Amino acid sequence: MHHLFRFSFCLLICASCSSDKQISKNPSQALYDQLDSSRVMLPNGWALTPAGKTVPLGDLPLNMALTHDQQYMAVTNNGQGMQSIQLVDVQQEKVIDEVAIAQAWVGLCFSPNDRFLYVSAGNKNTVKQYALSSGKLHLTDSIVLGAPWPNKISVAGIAINDTGNTLYAVTKEDSALYVADVNRLEVTKKFPLPHEAYTCLFDASRALLYISLWGGSEVAVFDVETQQFLAPIQVESHPNDMVMSQDSAYLFVANANANTVSVIDLAQQKVVENISATLYPDAPAGSTTNGLALAESDGETQLFMANADNNCLAVFDVTTPGESKSLGFIPTGWYPTAVRIVGDQLFVTNGKGNASKANPRGPNPYEKRTDDTQYIARLFKGSLSVLPLPDEATLSAYSRIVYKNTPYNKEKEQKAAGEASNPIPQTIAQTSPIKHVFYIIKENRTYDQVLGDMPEGNGDTALCLFPEKVSPNHHKLAREFVLLDNFYVDAEVSADGHNWSMAAYATDYVEKTWPSYYSGRGGTYDYEGSRKIAYPAQGFIWDYCQRAGVSYRSYGEFVNDGKPQLPSLEGHTDQDFAGFDLSIRDVDRFKQWKTDFDSLLALEAVPQFQVIRIGNDHTAGAKLGVPTPKLM
Asked: What spatial distance separates the first Cα and last Cα of the chain, rounded to whole Å?
């Protein structure tokens, strides 16, 4: 990664040398060149060129709430490290206050008079009430939904009615709607929901509450006067953020697992359009549309959609719902999670900030982790992008740079880079002499940590934690087969890593919930097939094999206590090959695999595709009573 950053720095110098001529000729081109010169590469092969001003935020900002007088913006930081609520002065475009909170997750809303900010406390199972006074937040009280974790409630989105006397909270563990009296600060009613919820939005004109059912593909509709649910509105996979038009005629719903935004006609209570937010038509799942904002003026309406995994905003003209038109894209920071509009300014929270980072100070496998340890789960701090609403010329320059930032295009689906003599096909029509694929999954290591000492590769010896004397087998395999020194992936920990390895995608559920679990704030490890909400829309690699008629078998991957965790793995596992367990030596795992392989070979039933989990390079650090990294 360091080589890529040095190269980006060289580009910055070269581009700046010729910028004067370009500015005088074409302001749009000058903007493009300015962004292009500041490009930062990510470990997944994508690049960042965030537009506008950057304001540092905390760990994984997931949501923003604006005061009704538009003077302040609250941001909730929900990462693995310190969680907090930050207060942004909108005019000054800077953070003016921050309060640490033990637990927080997504939910934020101000009271109608802006006196109070209500904050979801996540697995604490409460909603915190903060007084807002002179640009400062002060904790005053809480609304308790139940005892904290391990009591499974987990507050997600919240909303308040137009009088400010009733608060609504939806949850993602017990899948429920809680109704609370704000004056008494207590829950008065609880209603079950059919799926995990993400957020809710109050429609004062109809006295209805709309609830995005994250674990399903629908929006629940709750009549607050009759206290009854109306017929749900079918949308697409993983509905999350929602925004309503000023006249309350239309509701826009982001569908993170489908790359779309559903446009709902509220008079008819039905979807009239599903807008594709992707960079290319029919792109694979992975744009992760998860934040929305509307700009309405002079009879025109523009919709801004945050595409988390494309690192951009998609911009559409939605003046005539059902006939929406793409206007272009805006480059953001890494993993944009929310977007808001104040006047003619755009505010965008970037969940992972503006750059990736190496961690030479840890986690060192031979030392205890401290607050100074550069643990990857808390290394990427979020940011706030602030920029003017773009005109047509500016949006054109932004769109060009967004396309340059992505390593994907439609042509690559049909023809991949490669060599003509290589047995791996370059096109869909080509055949291959390869009959069997053995996909070996190892754990939690970057290239540099293990192979950074190999002079044949593009590595950094300063980042090598497990040199050849510690990992001789890895080095021997790399020399005898292939050294993948420029192969990039997109994961920080095992939770999203196994999803990227088995599906080339980690859903918004995976990305937004693992930090709470990893930091000991509650939650369960739902990330290897045990929970449907974590599934990509088209499933995992075994589902693709099943649909294509390719025989397959999994050894330990997405297996728990000998039981397959996916329907597609039923009958396709070795029940004697364990899942994650560092007490089992890799050599013993290999022996078990070989026993099963030999029996299948004798039956002439060796599957075409095998996944084999051999994960002791995970290591257990300096923990007492377990093998050292060298022994593992």
From this structure: 27
- Residue ranges, comma separated, of all CATH 2.130.10.10 domains in the chain are 59-350
Q: Does a cis peptide bond (omega within 30 degrees of 0) precede residue 284?
A: no
Overall size of the chain counted in residues:
632
Contact 253, 238 (CB under 8 A): no
DSSP state of 571: T
Cα–Cα distance between 103 and 120 in angstroms, integer?
A: 8
Q: 423 vs 420, 426, 435, CA distance in Å?
A: 8, 9, 11
Backbone phi, psi, residue 448, to 5°: -65, -35
Range scoring the smallest mean pLDDT among 139-143, 241-245, 346-350, 581-585: 581-585
Q: Residue 300's beta-bridge partner residues?
A: 297
Lookup: tokens for 22: 């370009």
pTM here?
0.93
Q: What angle, rounded to 10 degrees, do the helices at 508-518 and 494-503 form?
A: 150
Helix segments in 565-611, DSSP class H: 586-602
Mean pLDDT of the chain: 92
Q: How far apart are CA 100 and CA 103, in angstroms?
A: 9
Residue 85 CB coordination number (10 Å):
23
64 in helix, strand or coil? strand
Distance CA 576, CA 74 (A): 51
Distance CA 184, CA 168 (A): 14
Give the type of residue at 250: Y
The reported pLDDT for the residue numbered 371 is 65
Task: Report whether the peptide linkage leading into residue 150 is cis, meaning its omega lies within 30 degrees of zero.
Answer: yes
**169 backbone dihedrals φ, ψ, rounded to 5°:** -130, 135
Q: pLDDT for 369-379, tens place per residue?
A: 666 778 888 88
DSSP string, 23-38: HHH-HHHHHHHHHHHT
Amino acid at 111: S
Burial 603-618, CB ≥16 within 10 A → b, else e: eeebbebbbbbbbbbb
d(CA 113, CA 317): 32
Structure confidence at residue 592 as a pLDDT band (50, 70, 90): very high
Rounded to an integer, what distance in angstroms lies between the CA atom of residue 121 and that of residue 106?
A: 9
Element holding 449 (H helix, E strand): helix 447-451
In whole angstroms, give the CA distance from residue 546 to residue 550. 6
What whole-number distance in Å separates Cα of residue 602 and Cα of residue 606? 9
pLDDT of residue 363: 65
Could you tell me which residues are beta bridge partners of residue 176? Answer: 192
Class of domain 59-350: mainly beta
Instruction: Write the pLDDT tens digit of every residue in 214-246.
Output: 999 999 999 999 999 999 999 999 999 999 999
With a cut of 50, say whether residue 513 has pLDDT above it: yes
Residue type, 625: G
